[in-house]
């Protein structure tokens, strides 16, 4: 019996982005990155080239922001920012 596999969320976004515009993706991780991902992917000799999360999300189009924080600090700042906008 052959089972059908679904490519997943990343595949869906990459292939549907023709109809999606103006979106922003914010990636939070504790791994430092010095590369400006708005310029595209870094060259292979740059250590940031091997940050799979950044490569995957930067290929989805839109604006991708990378934040290097502990999750607790990130979520605390996000909540404070959202509360300011109310």
Describe the fold and architecture:
The chain has 86 residues and is α+β, with helices and mostly antiparallel strands. The protein has one domain. Helices cover 34% and strands 14% of the residues. It contains three helices and two strands. A two-stranded parallel sheet has the order 1-2. Helix 2 (52-58) links the parallel strand 1 and strand 2 (63-68). The longest helix is centred in the C-terminal third of the chain and has 14 residues, at 71-84. The radius of gyration is 16 Å and the shape is flat. The mean pLDDT is 79.
> Which assembly state applies to the chains in this document?
single chain
What's the helical proportion of residues? 25-40%
Q: What's the story with the biggest beta sheet?
A: 2 strands, parallel
The order of strands across the largest sheet is 1-2
- Which series of helices and strands comes N to C? HEHEH
Summarize the structure in short.
This protein is of the alpha+beta class and 86 residues long. Helices cover 34% and strands 14% of the residues.
